[in-house]
Write the structure tokens for this entry.
Amino acid sequence: MTIPYTVIGGFLGAGKTTLLNRWLRACDGVRMAVLVNDFGALNIDAALIESSAGDTVALTNGCVCCQIGDDLSMALLRVLDATPPYDAIVVEASGVSDPGRIAQFGRADPALVVDGVIVLVDAAAAEAHARDPLLADTLQRQLKAADLVVLNKCDLVDDAQRERLRAWIAHNNPRASIVETAEADVPLPLLSGLAMGRGPAGSCGCGRDHSHRDAQHDHAHPDADPAHGALFETWTCRPEGVFDAERLRARLKDPPAGLLRLKGTVRTGGATGWSLIQVAGRHARVLDAPAPGRDGAGVVAIALRGRLPADALAALFDGSSSAR
């Protein structure tokens, strides 16, 4: 059993700490270990703190925050040795570090699987930072590592500036998904494959079952927050066919344009007869999985409203392996 490993990067002041605090407050039933450089910068909500000792803060929701210290690998080993194991590990990279290098720890350890690299960009300051020859290389390396770019503080810039920033991000990383936000207010299912997996197959992670027993597909909001519903939409289906795992894996290496995240369980011809599929940015995985129970196969995808590649997803998941 592997533990999802997520890296949050971005330059100083981009909103990483705000995003982490939102995530910690929303951890409903998910025990998450967060590795940070500085507790003071994180400023954990006092109502969440259960106890603290040395370089560890235990939270009331079962999560824990640990200071990295001088050696990330040692901090990871301490978390991986925990009993019971944590459901997920999130690392907040320092503002000047390369999140891609930190993500390599997740690829090197068989106990971990990279769930995504999230990079925040300060919309109000990024253009000035990008013009600074001392900062430009750091910003470019951060962007190139990203699966999801959170263009934050968009309430502080005009439409023309947002368009320039989107073009700059796309130039540095054409394959990264871009989400525009204020106050780092990102729906949890966009950040975590675990959040997408909560609830029944076909659930978007908000705790409601959007699937239709007598319909192939359903469109719904990925979050209970109406503001999120205005920005994002989901596509769900319950594929009835049997898929070839290798062909599906090959198809998902180049996922449909506009897709932010995808997760599901489908019937395959593998060792267990079922496969778990996940897509986050450039990372796509098709892994053997146990049978999902009475709900059967189910897939959910999230995209920006108006950019959902519904036809491409239907073509990918309708039918059986003979047509794939």
Remarks:
- Residues 159-172 form the longest helix (14 residues).
